[in-house]
Every structure is written in structure tokens, then in C-alpha cells.
Amino acid sequence: MDATTMALALALGNLALCVPLFFFTAGAPGSPALSLWSVARQVQAIAWLLLYFGALGKVPGSLALPGGSLLLFAGIAIEAGAQWEAAGSERWRPILVPLLCVAAVLFLLAWLVDETLLGAVVYSLILGLFYLAQAAALAHSWRAASILQRFLALAIALLALALAARGVLLMPLPEGRGWLSFALLRQISLASLYVLSLLSAFGSLLLARERLQQELARMQVIDPLTDVANRRGFLNALAPWMALARRPGHATALVLLDLDNFKRVNDSYGHPAGDVVLRQLAEVCRRQLRDSDQLGRLTGVEFAILLPRTGLEEAALVAERVRAALESTAVKTGRALVKLTASFGVTTIRADDSTVTLFQRADQALQAAKQAGRNRVELAPAATVPE
């Protein structure tokens, strides 16, 4: 494929991506990263069209080549910014414009000095560096990255190095040496740029779909208000510990807690204030628990805590610590400071338990705490050992 055909193919390909993406995001709130990526692809489409018409002689070469190259730099740099945005980092924002300005000045100076050699060297190096910035964004948080994201990071990095290699090798070898000719380096550069454009485009779309699937899966098990496990998520976390309870070993405890007089908060200060209280309750609980403990929201104001490898007495101490922390917390709402108290029921998983019997026993202890005056911890009766 020659450079002219490649420019047309990439221009049409980017336009074909942008059109359906426009209708996909129209009228619906999209992610900032996806919107930024769409802008990057539009800029790249204009750049390739300008380069294509310049190659055909429809646009003067003195305008098409530098103008198209600068737009291409901007499009790929913005695309790298979109990847950093998707990675949750905003550090790219203050450096994007200065970096593009430096790249533009270097390229224009090189192009004016020697359009054929030095301009090609700087052009390849700048494109390679901007694609390497994309690879770095994809490699961000490597341990938590999916297999697809890791593959894209490695593939884009290798192709970006192949693209930049043209510039590195042309500097000491302007005439080529042996099999390493100018024409071969140019073909490698064109092929790398073409594959990079396609790979980053379809890779970004696949990553967006993967992130959407992950978010949907997360919403099925996470309570959106408090960002802790919902009932389904908590029961999923509880299931393996129910199975382990049938084997001899360390006990596992369950704590149910219910906010005292929460209806008064909603009635007096409104539901937004109630939401603030629930979020604060979850945060206070998290600070008192281990990383291995699991906090979940079962219903409106009823929460559960799973304490692996914790006996009844130790679980009571944990519940008391959480109760004291809640009692000492005053939540600032829009209209007042709201004091928190909660009642707790504590039990441990027994070998013959089902989830129904386990929660019934914990709920009975919780009701006993409420009947005894609230803001207290009650333990379920210990299992009787048959004689």
C-alpha cells in the first residue's frame, strides 16, 4: 500500500468510526474519555484527508504536508489524553498544549531545513512518542489491567518503537546500508502507522465495551449509594464461608446492624440528608474493619458485616467498636448535625446453618438490642453441644 492509498483508507476509516459514534453519544451522557477519543479521531480524519488531497495535488504541498502532519500530531496526542482520562489520571491536561507546541516547532524547523530527510526523521519520532504515551496510559495500573488492555499496551508500544525506529535509523544512515534502505524503512514506518491507527481505534472501542461490562457487573453486586456490597453481593461473599463452616476450624461471625430512629432523619431533614447519613455510616464502619471483612447493605438502613475467622466474643468486640465510633460521629447535613446510633446483633455461622437460619438468629439478637433500649450490642445464644 502506498502512502496516498493509506491516507485515503485512514481518512475514510476514521470518518466511518466518528459518524456512528456521534449518533451513539447524541442525547446521552457519555464518558469524557470516549468524547475526547471521538474528537481525536475527527482530527485525525481531517489530517489524513488533507494529506491525501495534498498527495493528489488538489491542495498545495507546502500547505498539505505540514498542516496535515500537525493535525495528525494533535489527533494522536488527544487520543493519548483520552487513554489517560480513561485510566483515571488527569496529569496529561497541563502538558498537552505545551507538548504539542514543542512538537510543532521541532517538526516545522526540521521540515524547512530538510523536507526529505530531517523532516521525515522528526515526523516519525514525534508520532512514535505520542503513541508510546498511549501505551503508557494503557499500562497504567498494570496489575489491575485486563488481558486485552495489557495486550494493547504491549502491541502499541512495539509498533510505536518500530515507527520511531525509522527516524532513529535514518539519522546515521541517510543513504541506507546494505539491506537497510531508505525505501524499506519507509515501508516499515507506513505499515506500523497503519496498523497502529487500526489497533488503537478498535482496541479503544473494545476497551470501552469491556469497561461498560465491568461496570454493569459491578452494579449488580454494589450498592450505588454507599459503595458497599448490596444484598446480592453480600450473599455471594457469604457463600464460601457458609461451606467452610461445615469443616472444623476457626469460626466466622455475622453482625447485623440497624440505624436507630432513621425515619426521623428523613422526616425532619429530607431524603438527601438521609443519604448523607447512610454514606457516613458505611464510611465509619469501613474504618473499623479489616481488609478481609465484608460490609454490605441488605435493606434501607440494615447493614451486615461478615467477619471471617472471628469467634463470637471477638465479633462482639468489633461490633462494640463500630457502635462506639458511630455514637461519636456527628453527620453534617444541609440543615443540622445528626448524631448516629445503631443496634447490633451478633452470631457465628454453625455447621448446620442455612442463610435463612443464620440471618434469623442474627436478626433475633438485633431485635433484642432494640427492645433493650437501642444503641447496644446483643449476642445470639451460643450453639449447644449435645451431651
Distance linking N and C termini: 86 Å
Number of β-strand runs: 7
Query: Per CATH, which architecture of the largest domain?
Result: Up-down Bundle
Average residue-wise pLDDT: 87
Task: Please state how the strands of the largest beta sheet are arranged side by side.
Answer: 2-3-1-6-7
Strand % is 5-15%
Our count of domains comes out at 2
Bin the helical content. 55-70%
* Rg from alpha-carbon coordinates: 31 Å
- Biggest sheet features: 5 strands, mixed
Give helix and strand order, one letter per element, not per position: HHHHHHHHEHHEEHEEEHE
Low-confidence stretches: none
| The first-level CATH class name of the largest domain | Mainly Alpha
Structure description:
The chain has helices spanning 3-25, 32-56, 61-86, 93-113, 118-139, 147-170, 182-221, 231-244, 262-269, 271-288, 312-327, 355-371; strands at residues 253-259, 294-297, 302-307, 330-332, 337-339, 342-348, 377-379. The protein has 387 residues and is of the alpha+beta class. It folds into two domains: 3-221, Rhopdopsin 7-helix transmembrane proteins, CATH 1.20.1070; 231-379, Reverse transcriptase/Diguanylate cyclase domain (Alpha-Beta Plaits). The strands form two sheets. It has a five-stranded mixed beta sheet with strand order 2-3-1-6-7, sandwiched between helices. Strands 4-5 form a two-stranded antiparallel ribbon. The longest helix is centred in the middle third of the chain and has 40 residues, at 182-221. The termini are far apart. The mean pLDDT is 87.
